[in-house]
Amino acid sequence: MRLPNLAACLGAGLGLLALDATAAFDAAQVDAFVAETVREYGLDEDVVRGVLGQAEQRESILAAMRRPAEAKPWHAYRKIFLTPERIEGGVAFMREHAEILARAEQEYGVPPQIVTAIIGVETFYGRHTGSYRVVDALATLGFAYPPRAKFFRSELGHFLQLVQEEPIDPLAAKGSYAGAMGLGQFIPSSYRAYAVDFDADGTRDLWGSKADAIGSVANYFARHRWRAGEPVALPVAASGALAEQANRGIELTTTVGALQQAGLDVPATLPGDAPANLVALEQPQGEDYWLGLHNLYVITRYNRSVHYAMAVYQLSEAIRESAAGVDAASG
Q1: Which terminus of the chain is more exposed, N or C, with fewer CB under 10 A?
Q2: Separation of alpha carbons 16 and 13, rounded Å
Q3: Quick check: 5 pLDDT over 80?
Q4: Considering the entire predicted model, what is its pTM?
Q5: How many domains is the chain built from?
Q6: What is d(CA 37, CA 5) in angstroms, rounded to the nearest whole number?
Q7: By the 8 A CB rule, do 84 and 120 touch?
Q8: What is the extent of the structural domain holding 181?
Q9: pLDDT recorded at residue 99
């Protein structure tokens, strides 16, 4: 079976295409990937090889993978996202798309400021959706980045399937250095699993449709068990032995009650059996401490980093507060 979307993009004579562009990739790995992808997804072998034959290994992608922003100390990482421009942009985004965001909250239970902050952190509200061809990013990381090669080869397989499901040109689609796409920067497996046609036009377009992007981010959070109305994280005071319990990981390793027994002062409204984590965030003159709760953990399902989750949360709060201030001033 020859699948039309891929074949149409590649043109005629796929069987004559050489793998010159993938010469830097290990031939045995490429062959194994092709065989597995054809078997798992039912794709045409010539089509798959045709796409890979035009993929290019990019050294800048490998370099970017070796210096993730999340590795920065918190105070440096926070400065990237908690800026006046990004806060103001978030207020403008929420105003422009208020109706869509309200519909997404009604359907999925995720507040507008959280959805807005995700899109703000990921792509500055759609200004920067990535300049790398997705196929180049996924092939480079799948065949030339051993630490996570298996994961990215899987994503490459999902991408080849995705372009059969949606009208996406596999050789023109652009995204991040890690192959994430659209306003919300969905990797291919997430695109396939969580993207929704929120504007009901028959396609799931995370680049061109703000409605689809908003609905898809909200759906992602709902599917990862976001709890509407519950807090995300709370600032707390910790020192001595209590501060030593702080965990920089993403897992909720304790409970609110256990931390209270250890001396942490938290609101009495929080149930004692609620899973929690005491989070330490590095500042120039010490550390800030936060009580991380279930919804903070849900944010880490989007990006497995406490720094990322806290940046999203703090940006969302800054956007919400700024928008409320503007409304009060104009009212």
Answers
A1: C
A2: 6
A3: no
A4: 0.92
A5: 1
A6: 16
A7: no
A8: 4-41+129-222
A9: 98
What is the pLDDT, as a whole number, of residue 168? 96
Could you give the percent of the chain with pLDDT greater than 70? 91
Distances in Å between the alpha carbon of 1 and those of 37, 46, 155, 156?
14, 10, 22, 20
Does residue 145 lie within any of the structural domains? Answer: yes
H or E element that contains 287: strand 286-292
Residues 6+ apart with CB under 8 A from 74: 281, 282, 283, 288, 307, 310
**Residue 142, domain CATH:** 1.10.8
Helix, strand, coil shares of the chain, percent, nearest 5, are: 55, 10, 35
pLDDT digits (tens, 9 = 90+) for 231-255: 999 999 999 989 998 987 899 999 9
Write down the catalytic residue from 56, 88, 99, 122.
122
- Indicate whether 295 belongs to any domain: no
Rg from Cα positions in the chain: 22
On whether residue 8 sits in a domain, the answer given is yes
Contact 119, 148 (CB under 8 A): no
What is the DSSP code string of 30-55? HHHHHHHHHHHH---HHHHHHHHTT-
Contact 110, 218 (CB under 8 A): yes
Active-site residue flag, 166: no
